[in-house]
Specification:
2 copies of one chain form a homodimer.
Chain A: E1 7-16, E2 22-32, E3 38-43, H1 50-55, E4 57-60, E5 65-69, E6 71-77, H2 92-105, H3 110-126, E7 129-135, H4 140-153, E8 156-160, E9 162-163, H5 184-201, E10 209-215, H6 223-235, E11 239-244, H7 248-257, H8 262-268, E12 277-281, H9 287-295, E13 299-302, H10 304-310, H11 317-323, E14 327-329, H12 341-357, H13 378-393, E15 408-412, H14 430-440, E16 446-451, E17 454-458
Parallel strand pairs in A: 1-4, 6-7, 7-8, 8-10, 9-10, 10-11, 11-12, 12-13, 13-14
Antiparallel strand pairs in A: 1-2, 2-3, 5-15, 15-16, 16-17
Helix pairs in contact in A: 3-4, 4-5, 5-6, 12-13, 12-14
Keywords (chains A, B): Hydrolase, Metal-binding, Zinc
GO biological process, one term (chains A, B): guanine catabolic process
InterPro entries (chains A, B): Amidohydro-rel, Metal-dep_hydrolase_composite, Metal_Hydrolase, Metallo-dep_hydrolases
C-alpha cells in the first residue's frame, strides 16, 4: 500500500542466529514499521517486481553492500576518550592518579563535557555502534549532557552517572581537595535526581536513551550506597552496570573487605535488575558463578583489549557462551584505545587463541594447553557484538528479525580508500566479504547507520 | 648554497634511540643529500631565517605534523593478501590445503601476480611501510614481478622466491598434480636464475630492491637444498630469510626429522648471511639460542598477530630485546589479517601484557606471573618497527640520523576523517600525539612517505 508508513529494505543480509551460526540471506526483503520494528524478513528469489517497488517504500541496497545488525558496545567510559591511546604504559595506580581521575574531574565543567561527549557519540556511531552503554562521571549535569548528545545523534544508549563514595579509594593528592569521590548522601541524591530528570529528558526519543544505575565497582562504593542504589534501580525500573571480577586486585578487595565476591555482593544489595544488568569484564568468575550468570541471565561485557592491560587474565569467552551467559562486547575506552567494536571482535578472537594455547612453554609456569575449549571464531565474536549485547540488555536488538528494532549497518567492503582489499575473482561470496569486514573493516566500510529504523548516519 | 642538490626538512622529529628511548626534537632541521642520505640533524631554537630558507631547498612540515622514520615490515607473504582476514577459524592443515596453497599456486599466472602485487605494495606503502621483506611464491617470474612493483612504487624491499622441495610437505590432493613444491634441481636452478636476473632488474633503483634467499622453512626443504641455498647466498652476497621456531609442530619436526633445532640447522647449511638473516617468529627459541641470535646479530621478525593463531605461544619480546637480539616486526599477512605495522605494534604491546600476567588462574594449568619481565611499551614496539628492523637487515634505516637513509613518514594526527580524536587543550605535547599515532593511527594519518629521500606517496 503506497500510503503505508511501512518501509522495505532489499539486499543481502548477514547476521548471527541466536545459537551462534551465521545466517546469510543473499537477497532479503526486510519490512520495517513506522516505529522502527522489523515486521518480516523474506528471502527473495529475485529482485522485487516494478509493481512491488512502486507500491512500497523500498530501499534497494547499493550493489556490493550488505546489511548487518548494528553493533552494541556494552562498556565505554565516555569521559576517557581524550586519553584513549595514551599513558597505557604506566602502572595502574599512576594511570588512575595522573591520567584518568584528573581527567574525570574536569567534567564538573559542562562545556568541557559537551565538547568531548559530542565527539564520543560521533566516533562510536561512525564505528557502527548503534547501542552504547556508557559510564559518564560522578557529575549529574555532565551525564545528562552525554544523554542529550546520544538523543541528538540518534544513538541508542544507556547512560550512567557514576557512583563512588568510598574515600579509601580516593587517589587525590589531598583528601580535603578530593575530586574523585562523593559523599554517600550526595551520591544517592544525585542518582535519584538524575533518574528523575532522565524521565523527562528522554521522553521525546522513543526510549532510545535510558539511565543506568552505575556503582563504579565494589571497592569504590560503601555497602550503604550499594543498598540504596539497588532500591533506586527497582524503583525506577532501571538497568544496572558495574565492573565485576576484573582483576586479581578487585576480587581480593571484595573477599577481604566485604567478605564476598562480586555476584554475591551485588545480589545482596538488590543490584541484579530485572531490566538487565551488565557486569564489565568478569574475567575471574569461577565455574559456579558462571552458572549463576547464565541462570539469572546477567550480561557480561567482554573487553578483551583492556583486559590485556588491567585484568591479569583472559576471560574464557567460549566457556561463558557455552554455559549460556549473555556475553556482549565492550571497547572499554580509555582502558583500551579503540572505540571500535570491530577491534573488540578481533581481539576477542585473538585472545581466545592465546587462551587456548597458553603463553608458551619456556621460562614461565604456564605449560600445556588450556583445560577447556577456549577458541572462538569471527562468528562468535560478531554474535557477542550483536545478539549477545541485545540479550545482555534484554532488548530486542542485535538481530534483524520480526519484533526486533531495525538497528542496522549498510556495509560496503569496496568503499573508497577502505582498508579492505577485494579480489572478486577469488573472494566472491558474501560470507568471505563478511569475514573481511570483521577482521579488516573500519568506519570507512560503514556506509549507513540505522537506529530504530531511522538513518542516523549516511556517508553516501 | 642554492645550487646544492641538498634538501632540508624542518619540523618536529620523533623516533627511538638505538637504546630504546624516545627522542623528540621539537624543531629539527634535517639535511639530506642527493643520494637520500641524512647529512645532519640539528635542533633549532626557532624557525630558520628567511635567508636560510631562500638559500636552501627547504621543506617546512605542515603545522601539527611530525616526522618519524619509515616503518619496516620484516615478514609479509605477498601472495596471501587476497586471503587476508578470511578462513582464520579453520585448522592449520585445512587452512593450508583449502586456502593458502591453492592461492599460492595461482601465481604461476604472472598476470594474476601483477594484479595482486600492485595492490600489496600500494597497501603496505599506504600504511607507512618504507621497507618490506617479502616472501613471494616458488614461481620465479612472479617473484620478479613483485620486485618490479616495489621498484615502480619506490618501496625499499627484499624479495624472495620461495624454495620448497620436500614432497612430504605437499598437501595437494594428488602428489602427481602437486602445485606447492618443486624438485630440488628446479629449486636451485630457479633461485640461481632469480638471483642473476635481479642484478639487472634492480640496477636502476639505487639498490632499494634486492633478492633474499628464501627457504620456506626447515620442514619444506631437503638438507641438500638448504646447503645449495647457503652457497648461493654466499656467492651472491644475499640476505637470507626463513621461518624459525614458529610452533610446537615446527620445532618437533626439526628435532625428530633433522636431528636439530632451527639455528643449528641453518648454521650447518651456511644459511646465516653476513648481509643479514631474518628468522620469522622465533617464539620457541630457548635461552641459549637467544644468546646466539644476539651474538650473531641474527634478525627476528616478531609477528604477534599471527603468533596468536599459529604459534602456540607468545614470543618473549622484552627478553629478546634485553638480550640484544635485533628484533623487528612483521605483519605476516595472511597468517594475520593486517598489512599495517602499526597493528603489529599494538598487538606486540598487548601480547606482552598477556605474557606478563599469563592467561588466568582458573581452569587451566597456567598460574602466576611470567618468570621474567615481559611487558613492553609503545616505545619498544616502535623501536622494533623502525630501529630493530634496520638492525635485523644490517641497513642504515629505521632512524633519522647522519649516515642513515632518509626513509620517513610525515604524520598528522589531525588528518581529516582520521581515527584519532585530538583534544589540544589536554593533549598538546608531541609525545602524546605520537602515542595516539602508535595506538590509534592508520593510513589516514600518514600524509607523506619518503624512501631514499624521494617522496613516493603524497596525500596532501
Amino acid at each position: 500500500m503506497s500510503d503505508s508508513p511501512k518501509r522495505v529494505f532489499v539486499g543481502p543480509l548477514v547476521q548471527c542466529s541466536i545459537d551462534r551460526h551465521l545466517e546469510v540471506v543473499e537477497n532479503a526483503a526486510i519490512e520495517v514499521d513506522k516505529d522502527g520494528f522489523v515486521i518480516s524478513v523474506t528471502a527473495l528469489d529475485s529482485l522485487p517486481s516494478t509493481e512491488y517497488l512502486k507500491s512500497n517504500n523500498v530501499t534497494i541496497l547499493p550493489t556490493g553492500s550488505f546489511l548487518v545488525p548494528g553493533l552494541i558496545d556494552l562498556h565505554y567510559h565516555a569521559p576517557q576518550l581524550p586519553q584513549a591511546g595514551t599513558n597505557l604504559h604506566i602502572p595502574l595506580h599512576d594511570w588512575l592518579t595522573t591520567t584518568t581521575l584528573p581527567l574525570e574531574a574536569k567534567y564538573a565543567n559542562t562545556q568541557f563535557a559537551e565538547t568531548v561527549f559530542e565527539k564520543v557519540v560521533k566516533r562510536t556511531l561512525g564505528h557502527g555502534t548503534t547501542t552504547a552503554v556508557y559510564f559518564a562521571t560522578k557529575h549529574r549535569d555532565s551525564a545528562k549532557i552525554l544523554a542529550s548528545c546520544c538523543i541528538k545523534a540518534g544513538q541508542r544508549a544507556l547512560v550512567g552517572k557514576v557512583c563512588m563514595d568510598n574515600k579509601e579509594m580516593c587517589l587525590c593528592t589531598k583528601e580535603s581537595l578530593c575530586t574523585c569521590t562523593e559523599t554517600t548522601t550526595e551520591s544517592i541524591h544525585e542518582t535519584r535526581t538524575f533518574l528523575e530528570e532522565m524521565v523527562s529528558l528522554t521522553k521525546s526519543c522513543n526510549s532510545r536513551v535510558e539511565p543506568v544505575v552505575t556503582p563504579r565497582f565494589v571497592p569504590s562504593c560503601s555497602p550503604h550506597l550499594l543498598t540504596q542504589l539497588g532500591s533506586l534501580s527497582q524503583e525506577f525500573n532501571a538497568h544496572v552496570q558495574s565492573h565485576a571480577w576484573e582483576s586479581d586486585w578487585q576480587v581480593e578487595y571484595g573477599e577481604q573487605n566485604r567478605n564476598g565476591r562480586d555476584l554475591d555482593l551485588f545480589q545482596n544489595h538488590n543490584l541484579i535488575s530485572k531490566q538487565g544488568t551488565v557486569f564489565a569484564h568478569s574475567v575471574h568468575a569461577n565455574d559456579s558463578e558462571i552458572k549463576q550468570l547464565a541462570h539469572h541471565q546477567i550480561g557480561v561485557a567482554h573487553c578483551p583489549l583492556s583486559n590485556a592491560f588491567f585484568a591479569n587474565g583472559i576471560m574464557p569467552a567460549r566457556l561463558m557462551l557455552e554455559a549460556g551467559v549473555p556475553v556482549g562486547l565492550g571497547t572499554d575506552v580509555g582502558g583500551a584505545w579503540s572505540s571500535s567494536i570491530l577491534d573488540s571482535c578481533r581481539q576477542a578472537v585473538t585472545s581466545s587463541r592465546i587462551l587456548r594455547d597458553g603463553v608458551g612453554k619456556l621460562r614461565g609456569a604456564r605449560n600445556g594447553p588450556c583445560s577447556h575449549p577456549a577458541e572462538i571464531n569471527h562468528v562468535d565474536a560478531f554474535w557477542m557484538a550483536t545478539v549477545g549485547g541485545g540479550l545482555a540488555l534484554k532488548k530486542k536488538i542485535g538481530r534483524i528479525a520480526p519484533g526486533y528494532k531495525f538497528d542496522a549497518l549498510v556495509v560496503d567492503v569496496h568503499a573508497p580508500n577502505s582498508n579492505i582489499d577485494s579480489f572478486d575473482s577469488l573472494v566472491d561470496t558474501i560470507e568471505t566479504k563478511f569475514q573481511k569486514f570483521v577482521y579488516l573493516g573500519d568506519d570507512r566500510n560503514i556506509r549507513q547507520v540505522y537506529v530504530d529504523g531511522i538513518c542516523v548516519l549516511d556517508k553516501q
